[in-house]
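Human: I'm a chemist; would you kindly supply sequence and structure tokens for a protein?

Assistant:
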Amino acid sequence: MNKDSVLLTIPSKPDYISLVRLTSSSLCNKCKLNIDEIEDIKVAIAEACINSLSFGNKNAINIEFNMDEEKLTIQVSGVIENIPEGLNEKKDRELGILIIKSLMDKVIFNEMGIEMIKFIE
């Protein structure tokens, strides 16, 4: 597989998270990941999108998939690691971050959002 990149932009609405999950499933299959890895990625990307809905751009969420022989890298815009105090859903969002970190091989937060990496064996 050559290095491929797919950019998906969805409206900032919960209804579109299923589209992101389906897209990630298809791309993971192309990377020859097994069913457990695919399910892990689908859960992690859904959690990232939920976080972005709460804290990111109110108009759109950008999801970029970069694939090569060694890894699948997924970047989601608007995701934050440090959940603000006083938020009603603070514990849920913190749990979402823990889920992402436990399911992905490497997680990096930056000014754009989150970068999640799954290594291909």
